[in-house]
Design goal:
Pfam families: Transgly, Transpeptidase. Its EC number is 2.4.-.-. There is one protein chain. The chain has 782 residues and is α+β, with helices and mostly antiparallel strands. β4 and β5 form a beta hairpin. It is elongated and about 100 Å long.
């Protein structure tokens, strides 16, 4: 029987003997076992010596988390993202000084012992027994490598990290068992290489290459003696020996490493003394992590790419798997971003709208026929500093991809109504009376056999922008002048459902994910949408009727060992949304808008272009959406909070009494597209012959967009009636369909979150039937 200590229990030497007995047993158990190609780390801690044989024998070196690099379509870096900044390098690419320094200070007998240093174990056990706990470690570099494997596998899970780092005898035994496997399989040089690539050096730097870049802005192969000693010293306690925050403590630790290198014969005492007298020589570089570091204002596009990776099942079956791939995957993502287009978009935005303005702008360019997103930017920079006018909300995209609730597109929706009508057989010469003022036609057919009806007792009125605008009009002039009453008569004639169907085929959807409301006021752009949605919809016209889903990623590769493996990526799917003739007819109509109508300030000179202006009632939003045969773009200007009306306002240093789609977004679009298309082929549309209108419906196309004058009639009436009466009984759509009012969904649905509710005003969104009809708070203007 072993002798007991007076206080009970085994003496320090007896504990050591027991531990060594286990170690010998471990050696016998593990003899001849090779490291398997696959297996689990088995993070469950074994808290006792008796659990040794229960520890899984299989150990797999984890795929080290590395930075992901995002590139534009020319292969130039946009940004890097990572949860752990690491670049894995071969041992030959690490300075010999660094190799010697880490061995000298962490495990000077590394090349003399096996997986376990028995002398070190005895020393540590004796010390720990005296202290009554775990006061000193005896881990070899191999055991430390195993511990780092556990930490790496734990990722950002705090429970698993705690298990991987807990100071218990059980964890030490677990390290021992796996360390024996690794020594047998890898050999000393590979163990040292893996250790230097996995260990944490502070300042967000994992691995010696990242650390060398962070502290000295150089590669690990170029580290000199004193630099290597500094990095080696940091490993024991990255926070305590951080040279950035405590130069004195870091210097003392560096000199300790230098002295140890001299003691073990790696360098002479003279070399050590000379190195001790030199300054730290820091040349730090800031961590460049995340979309906030993106170049050319591409932070929001970078964030969109992130959203694609996090949400598309092609990148992983679960949300957790996709997040891990994004943060730790070591990916190289080549995107669709065109640097010329992106730079032009940001330059135009900067010239026309200041980041500190009361309103913001967002712009997006896509490629017709492919769905490739070529540019995406906005006036408020990407970031979290609100005082610096920064935001992380991507104003160009839908809510589920990091955007907001969207913005009413106003008259930029009218071409979709025109496309539905033409596709259904209506000629572009179709004429309507198009008076200056009228009530909504009622009833109007909707989808699934339903019918929209106005309240016969209090019919909803709408007007054009100017009293001089009155019909009769045909489609060409009505589109150029953006005549509200014409388009409401048109949708009432063909029915609501063809427009809903055409919008769906063109990828047009509400930014908040809800269904488009079935009401004739949708013709005036009352449903909130994003710039990306509108740009891609107009790309359908540019590609002669082919709609392609938007894509942001061209290819993805992942570093696996020393090789790169290609991963699947989302592909654009293209389908015919309308006939070529219909698309060409719409292009002919919209070419007239730029040449002779409300969009003249957006013209591209000798390069053929087409587009449409849009300004909502009360001027909460203004748009220009347009295209050439090879690019389509959308520009929105407004208050993301939907509080500031764009009247008596200064934007980009220019004062405006009233903001129109052609006046502010139009020039932004013009300058953006001019730069993006520079040196690109000049292509023309396939135009159709549309006879000129035989009637003159007005003297002046005006500046407006065909809506009511600051909410006159339609706006005020719509909000009051819609809010006070409400419901399908008093003006809602019958047969179960919903009405629409003031630019939002009605008939019992809850209010659109971007629309503010003045304290003394009842808005027509709440149980408001169809009153307001969209002529109120949104829709209609040029």
């Amino acid at each position: 029987m072993p002798k007991k200590r007076p206080g009970g229990g085994l003496s320090p030497m007896q504990q050591a003997a027991k531990f060594l007995g286990v170690s010998v047993l471990a050696g016998a158990v593990m003899a001849g076992i090779a490291l398997p190609a696959a297996g689990a780390l088995g993070l469950a801690a074994k808290g006792s010596v008796q659990g040794f044989d229960e520890i899984p024998a299989n150990l797999k070196s984890p795929q080290l988390s590395q930075r992901t690099t995002i590139l534009d379509n020319q292969g130039k870096q946009i940004a890097t993202v990572y949860s752990r900044d690491r670049t894995v390098v071969d041992l030959k690419d690490i300075s010999p000084y660094m190799q010697k320094a880490i061995v000298a200070i962490e495990d000077s007998r590394f090349y003399k012992h096996g997986a376990v240093d028995l002398k070190g174990v005895l020393r540590a056990l004796n010390k720990n027994a005296q202290e009554g706990g775990v006061a000193q470690g005896a881990s070899t570099l191999t055991q430390q490598l195993v511990k780092n494997y556990f930490i790496e596998e734990a990722g950002d899970d705090p429970t698993k990290v705690a298990e991987a780092t807990q100071q218990t005898l059980g964890r030490k035994i677990r390290e021992l068992k796996y360390a024996i496997q690794i020594e047998d399989k890898l050999g000393k040089k590979k163990i040292l290489e893996n250790y230097l690539n996995i260990t944490f050096f502070g300042e967000q730097a994992y691995g010696v290459e990242a650390a060398s870049q962070r502290y000295f802005s150089k590669h690990a192969k170029d580290l000199n003696l004193q630099e290597s000693a500094l990095l080696a010293g940091i490993v024991q306690s990255p926070s305590r020996y951080d040279p950035v925050n405590d130069e004195a403590e870091a210097t003392k630790r560096r000199n300790t490493v230098l002295q140890r290198m001299a003691e073990v014969g790696d360098i002479s005492q003279k070399e050590a003394d000379q190195a001790k007298g030199k300054p730290l020589g820091l040349h730090t570089s800031r961590p460049k992590n995340g979309c906030i570091t993106a170049v050319k204002g591409a932070g929001f596009f970078c964030d969109y790419v992130r959203q694609v990776v996090l949400t598309d099942p092609v990148f992983g079956k679960t949300k957790e798997a996709r997040a891990k791939l994004w943060n730790r995957g070591g990916l190289t993502i080549r995107t669709t971003l065109d640097p010329q287009a992106q730079q032009s978009a940001q330059a135009s935005i900067k010239d026309h709208v200041y980041k500190s303005d009361a309103v913001a702008t967002a712009a997006t360019i896509v490629e017709p026929g492919t769905g490739k997103i070529l540019a995406m930017g906005q006036s408020r920079p990407y970031g979290v500093n609100v005082k610096n006018d920064e935001t992380t909300i991507n104003l160009s995209v839908n809510g589920d991809m990091g955007g907001g609730a969207g913005y009413q597109p106003g008259s930029t929706f009218k071409p979709i109504v025109a496309a539905a009508a033409i596709e259904g057989g209506k000629p572009p010469t179709q004429e309507y009376s198009s008076p200056y003022e009228m009530t909504y036609p009622s009833p109007v057919s909707a989808c699934d056999g339903k019918t929209w009806r106005d309240d016969p007792n209090k019919p909803t009125k709408l007007t054009n922008e100017n009293e001089s605008e009155h019909g009769p009009y045909a489609m060409k002039e009505a589109t150029a002048k953006s005549v509200n009453t014409y388009y409401v008569q048109l949708i009432s004639d063909i029915g609501i459902c063809p427009v809903i169907d055409m919008a769906k085929q063109m990828g047009v959807q509400r930014a908040d994910g809800r269904k488009i409301t079935q009401a004739p006021s949708i013709a005036l752009g009352t449903q909130e949408m994003s710039p990306l949605t509108m740009a891609n919809a107009y790309a359908t016209f540019a590609s002669r009727g082919m709609y392609c889903t938007p894509i942001a990623i061209e290819s993805v590769t992942k570093k696996v060992g020393s090789e790169r493996k290609s991963l699947p990526v989302p592909k654009s799917t293209c389908s015919r949304a309308m006939s070529e003739k219909t698309a060409d007819t719409v292009s002919t109509l919209l070419k007239g808008v730029v040449e002779d109508g409300t969009g003249q300030e957006a013209g591209l000179g000798s390069r053929p272009s087409a587009g449409k202006t849009g300004t909502t009632d009360e001027r909460f939003a203004a748009w220009f959406v347009g295209y050439t045969p090879n690019m389509a773009g959308a520009v929105w200007v407004g208050d993301p909070q939907h509080k500031r009306k764009m009247t008596n306002i200064t934007i980009g240093g220019v004062p405006h009494d009233k903001v129109y789609g052609g006046e502010v977004p139009g020039p932004i679009w013009r300058d953006m597209m001019s730069g993006a298309l520079e040196d690109k082929p000049v292509e023309d549309f396939h135009l159709v012959d549309i006879p000129d209108d035989t009637h003159d419906g007005g003297d002046d196309p005006g500046k407006g967009d065909g809506g009511t004058e600051d909410g006159n009639n339609g706006d005020t009436t719509g909000r009051l009636i819609g809010g006070l009466i409400g419901g399908p009984t008093d003006g809602g759509a019958t047969d179960g369909s919903t009405g629409d009012a003031t630019g939002g969904t009605l008939g019992g649905t809850f209010p659109t979150p971007t629309i503010s509710v003045p304290g003394n005003f009842i808005q027509g969104q709440v149980n408001g039937g169809n009153h307001g009809g969209g002529n109120g708070h949104g829709g209609g203007r040029r």
